[in-house]
Design a protein that fits this description.
Blueprint (H helix, E strand, L loop, with lengths): L3 H34 L5 H9 L6 H12 L4 H8 L9 H27 L2 H8 L4 H12 L1 H16 L3 H7 L9 H10 L3 H25 L1 H5 L1
Length: about 220
């Protein structure tokens, strides 16, 4: 059966994934809308920057976050000036790293949903004298709902499965930065295979349910 430390890691992981997903929806929506609509020359570099965590090793990203958020880094200097201290080895640091690391898994599905809407619904709303804000909330968001559902599922699941980034930024502090992936690693290091099996099997079941949910949310893509 899961130990108290395992349950603490599970609760912390779910809390981190939920908060990260919420922040990404708020930050990712205007970013995805800009990427879907802009013709700026900056679209390519910004899109590449958003997608960078897809190809970078997690430990590389975690290392540079550790340096940037440390006492001698630019982010660390700013947080210390604001009286917040430094972010490495704190839950707040985990959130910052997770937001960046999971960003493409939220921004890209929303961007694809915005691009699939096309120009016609927006022009129709304009002929009815709807304001841009009203058009976005009344027309764009309902039409982009499948993209948002995929973004929520993928962003949450990807944050749950993080290892390299959270280990580099947060370390291994019980009930503060020790998430499920790190807890499994600890069990294996200690040759506690039974406890590792409990958590690993739960991750396998969770991953399967995530993929099942994605197929259910996107039956058209499944048929294709």
């Amino acid at each position: 059966m899961p130990a108290a430390s395992d349950l603490g890691a599970i609760v912390l992981t779910l809390k981190l994934a939920a908060l990260t997903t919420l922040i990404l929806l708020l930050v990712g929506t205007p970013l995805a809308w800009w990427l879907a609509r802009t013709r700026s020359a900056w679209k390519g570099p910004v899109g590449a920057l958003v997608a960078l965590p897809l190809v970078l090793p997690p430990t590389v990203l975690g290392f540079y976050f550790l340096v940037a958020m440390g006492p001698n880094g630019p982010i660390g200097a700013l947080t210390q000036w604001l009286g917040l201290g430094v972010l490495p080895f704190t839950f707040a640091g985990l959130v910052v790293g997770s937001v960046v690391y999971s960003m493409p898994f939220v921004v890209q599905p929303i961007q694809n949903a915005f691009e699939a809407i096309g120009q016609e619904p927006l022009e129709a709303a304009a002929t009815l004298r709807a304001s841009p804000l009203d058009t976005f909330f009344s027309v764009v968001l309902p039409l982009a709902r499948p993209g948002y559902l995929s973004a929520v599922v993928m962003g949450f699941a990807h944050t749950v499965g993080e290892f390299g980034v959270v280990l580099m930024i947060g370390g291994n502090i019980p009930d503060k930065t020790r998430v499920v992936s790190v807890q499994i690693y600890d069990h294996v290091e200690a040759l506690e295979y039974t406890q590792a099996h409990w958590l690993a099997a739960g991750m396998v079941a969770f991953s399967f349910l995530v993929l099942l949910a994605l197929y259910a949310l996107n039956p058209t893509g499944q048929r294709r």
